[in-house]
Design a protein that fits this description.
By secondary structure, this protein is α+β, with helices and mostly antiparallel strands. The protein contains 8 helices and 5 strands, in the order H-E-E-E-E-E-H-H-H-H-H-H-H.
């Protein structure tokens, strides 16, 4: 049967990708210091905990430097704080709670680490998804999912469509870090809806129960 994919890691990675709209190598670049939890008072007086993530880096591998964290996403202007939906906040809280600093093996203090405590390589995460598709292709087809279409680009496209439909293309643009709504509409979102809502609320509505 060979090596089995790490389903828990893959599920957490996909949920964070859905919650932040980050590109493939960006979630594994999230550092301990990039996550903030804030208590927010609701109209009824109760408190809820909200999670915010700084989208400010990506993991890169080059021949000269090997694997390292680049201190910006695809473009410098795309750095941003994102309030994540509940399903992503749950994963982030687990990662933060289990995080153990290790300056030698994990100098950037990223949350997604390997079994040896080192940062995750983007290619290894990609291979993890390919293993998952190969092993569970019959099950995926049974629920109407073409395994070849299940890529790390898929969650970002789903986020763009869900947020644009619910909260408007401007919110989707800001969440994805695009410079204009033309990019969002042309490549990701189906149509703009001029309803002013927060992206996290839209995603909680669109993907309710996804972490059950």
């Amino acid at each position: 049967m060979g090596r089995r994919p790490n389903d828990k890691l893959l599920a957490g990675y996909i949920l964070i990708t859905l919650g932040t709209s980050e590109r493939t190598a960006e979630p594994i670049a999230i550092r301990f210091q990039d996550v903030r939890f804030e208590a927010v008072e609701q109209p009824d007086g109760s408190l809820t905990m909200e999670a915010l993530v700084w989208v400010g880096g990506t993991m890169v591998r080059t021949k000269s430097r090997g694997l390292f964290r680049q201190d910006s996403p695809k473009a410098e202007r795309q750095k941003r704080w994102v309030r994540v939906p509940k399903f992503a906040a749950k994963v982030l809280s687990e990662l933060v709670a289990s995080h153990v600093p290790d300056p030698e093996r994990n100098p950037d203090d990223v949350l997604f680490t390997s079994e040896h405590g080192r940062p995750r390589d983007p290619s290894a995460v990609g291979e993890l998804l390919r293993m998952f598709r190969r092993e569970l292709e019959p099950e995926l087809l049974a629920i109407g999912v073409d395994a070849e279409h299940l890529t790390f680009r898929s969650p970002r496209k789903a986020v763009a469509a869900a947020v644009s439909d619910t909260a408007g293309v401007e919110v989707a643009r800001d969440l994805l870090g695009h410079s204009s709504t033309d990019i969002t509409e042309g490549h990701y979102a189906k149509r703009p809806d001029l309803i002013v809502e927060l992206a996290a609320d839209a995603l909680d509505e669109a993907f309710a129960g996804i972490d059950a």
